[in-house]
Design goal:
The chain is mainly alpha-helical. The protein has a two-stranded antiparallel sheet.
């Protein structure tokens, strides 16, 4: 997975909706949905429960989101060293 995928997961969790996230990152809603499906297939787990109003992290999703935060934070630290 790319760092952008991990950043997308964190943004989805922060904003709480696919539509809202798509607006913020200036990508189409179907593109965000497709990337989320790819990530869920990659991990073999459902990351979010999709309700009519919001995205709720699953227990596995919480673990994946924590991992994503570590990856993104470590990438930022590494870039600061250069």
């Amino acid at each position: 997975m790319k760092i952008e995928d991990y950043e997308l997961l964190l943004k989805l969790n922060e904003i709480g909706t696919i539509r809202g996230t798509a607006k913020v990152i200036l990508v189409s809603q179907p593109a965000v949905t497709q990337r989320l499906k790819y990530m869920e297939d990659y991990f073999g787990e459902q990351i979010f429960i999709r309700t009519s109003k919001e995205l709720l992290p699953t227990p596995s999703g919480e673990i994946i989101l924590n991992y994503a935060k570590e990856i993104v934070d470590n990438e930022k630290k590494l870039k600061k060293l250069n």
